Amino acid sequence: MDVPCVRVPREEGEATRSRLADADLIDDGYEITVEDGSLYIPVTDSEAVPDDLEVVRRSADERETQTTPADLLGFDPSYERLGKAVLLDEDDGDRAREIADAVLESDLPVETVLNKASKVKGETRVRDWELLTGADTEVVHREYGCEFALDVAEVYFSPRLATERHRVAQQVESGERAFDMFAGVGPFVVPFAKRGAECVGVDINPDAIAYLRENARRNGVEDRVTAICADVRTLVSTRADADEDTTQVRDTKGPDYENWADRIVMNLPHSADEFLETAVAIAGDDCVVHYYDIQHEDDPFGPGERAIRAVAEPEYDVSVETRRTVRSYAPHELNVCLDVRLERSSA
Question: 76: closest CA among 55, 47, 52, 106?
Fold first, then answer.
């Protein structure tokens, strides 16, 4: 069967294999082969392979099937993988434990199984977990060559957004100044910094900021990452402040981030519109904003675009460069992203 494979010289094979494994791109259903001095590594998503690697289609032998949880259960359970942890969302406690036992008995490289015990709650967007097996709720997750330590009980993190984060990171150029307004443990900030950007990550959750600093160190980019624990709205003055003749409590210990950023990430889809005044204050003369939203499928992009224009114009010329559906969020609701360029108006 023809499958997409990364082709590299044999002497570069192990380094490339490790790189693809870190990005969770290797297709374990097929064998890695050697032919005429080249190594062929099957991959799951050819579009996600870094641009400096060559992808070809060729015949590959299927690997001997490993034992999966579905083989042991007789049904295909729903779960997410996060590092060496499996995350369940089961209302039935007995079914959750049955799945946990099958996961551990299978060939999955898993040490911890957790079941969701609450919905996401509070301004830090964390949830409660039931620890079915394993030592604790801390994991180490790898995606696209970056490593992230985190505690799922203390911080918000979604492995489902890895492809979207990679899409945005691929746009970043060395020397950019990038600002993540809701940075979490750094899944945008760290890959941005690895591409040579100077990054600021802000989050209201002190545990997330502690992990962001740790993850910057883990990935060797601590010199390009500034992590700030704050409500991002306290870091700059906005036009609304001036209009209302009020004074916000600002972070006087740090630098001034007004008119600072070449790129801004606003991944708080339920309420990002509440932070648009701050985003515009942070934006430099030519800035790309990645604005995440959740809207009804009948008009998923319109509300976000109208909100951005209402705040940014006429100070900025606003152009939408990308309208992208990230995933289905709920029946008839979509999680979307608008890549919006703000160019300061000369008028």
Answer: 106
**C-alpha dihedral over 179, 240, 339, 120, to 10 degrees?**
70
Angle at 257 between CA 252 and CA 261, to 5 degrees: 165
The amino acid at residue 249 is V
CA geometry: angle at 288 spanning 284 and 292, to 5°?
125
Q: Long-range CB contacts (< 8 A, 24+ apart) of 303-306?
A: 303/273, 304/272, 304/273, 304/336, 304/338, 305/338, 305/340
Instruction: Give the tens place of pLDDT for each residue, 32-50.
Output: 999 988 999 999 988 888 8
pLDDT digits (tens, 9 = 90+) for 188-247: 999 999 999 999 999 999 999 999 999 999 999 999 999 999 999 999 877 656 554 433
Residue pair 275/326 in contact by the 8 Å Cβ criterion: no
| Residue with tokens 């295909």, as numbered in its chain | 76
Separation CA 180–CA 268 (nearest Å): 11
The amino acid at 262: D
